Amino acid sequence: MPENYYKFELMPLKYDYSALEPYIDTKTMRVHHDGHLKTYVDNLNKALENYPGLQKLSLEDMLKNTSIIPQEIKTAVINNGGGVYNHNFFLNNIRPGRENNYPAGTLSSAIEKQFGSFEDFKNKFTNGALAVFGSGYLWLVRNRNGKLMLFPASNQESPLSYGYCPILTIDLWEHAYYLKHQNLRRDYINNWWNVINWANAEENFINCMRR
Ligand code: MN
Question: Which of 101, 112, 178, 203 fits 174 for a cystine, CB–CB 3.0-4.6 Å?
Fold first, then answer.
């Protein structure tokens, strides 16, 4: 993903709101993008409007170095900046669904090496996503030692703030699935496996290896 600068704008979706049916419904996509993401963008811009020094930094650099953010806007930047970064990442990380949706290339090999098999990874990731308590995300990241690992994140905290390089994520806030699945988070997760954009995840992984 190219770095993102103030003044932040609502990222256009690369597919129609209805394109992820039947796995993710049109109404959820519309509310998630036009409602939730738009609010994060607006609130992030508002938090930064009187901070010209910070406006010169990319969103990624702010999230990587949260200690440089003045105390009075730190929470707002972490919550809303995380909300923008995480949603942009998540929405680029999915695409119209297909059966038998598997990774290929170097990421596929790395997953097999690290987790034993794709099925083992899928089970571990699904259980990890079910275990995220309250609102948050589950991320597949590359850590500083070059290992793949699962990173459960609360609310809008970003893996960038922990020194991790993000590859794959699922949004586990209820707004991501409640209209279609209500309390059945497992059904949402099962559907999400069909819409993962593995080409995007592969690209993320390759960028992580270049860092
Ligand atoms: Mn969300």
Answer: 178
Q: Position of tokens 């083992």?
A: 120
**Residue 10: beta bridge partners?**
none
pLDDT of amino acid 185: 94
> Are 173 and 135 spatial neighbours (Cβ–Cβ below 8 Å)?
yes
Domains and CATH numbers, the chain: 26-92 (1.10.287.990), 105-210 (3.55.40.20)
| Ranges of the chain with pLDDT below 70 | 1
How far does the centroid of ligand 1 lie from the alpha carbon of residue 32, in Å? 6
What is the number of other CB atoms lying within 10 angstroms of the CB of residue 135?
15
Threshold 0.90, pTM exceeds: yes
> What's the burial of 119, exposed, middle or buried (CB within 10 Å: 0-12/13-18/19+)?
exposed
Quote the tokens at residue 127. Answer: 């259980």
